[in-house]
Design brief:
The chain is α/β, with parallel strands linked by helices and 154 residues long. Helices cover 32% and strands 19% of the residues. The chain is built from five helices and six strands, in the order αβαβαβαβαββ. Strands 3-2-1-4-5-6 form a six-stranded parallel beta sheet, with helices on both faces. It is globular.
Length: 154
Amino acid sequence: MKMINNGVVTEHFKYNEYVRNDMRRKMKLSGKIVYGHVGRFAEVKNHIFLLDVFEKIARERSNSVLMLIGAGELKDKIENLAKEKGIADKVVFVGTTDKVGDYMQAMDMFLFPSLHEGYPIVAVEAQAAGLPSILADTIIKEVAITDLVEFLPI
């Protein structure tokens, strides 16, 4: 076995249809298009922008859901903003978990609009899970190790 610092144990994220179906059943997400994000609730992660984007998606695709994994000082603010926008029923706040890979199985697309990052391992994890991923163009391009990643301006 070879150890790579800051690497990803791909087995924790590898696509598994059983896990996907089980997670979607448990979370009542069957028939939904699930957009996901993993990150602490902090200014740099740009959750306000993420909710703005998702609000537009939800208007066009009524079966859309936004799954947010993480905790942080802005979580209450983001929950309140989702209520103000009228999309609280379409936003799932997971909290912190050591089963990020299982939750990623339930997602259909990964969104990562951070204002700036170092090398976001979670973007690599999303690719390991086989998720099409839209990342802010502020993210280091070397994180795109598959063709599943698209960079867009925020």
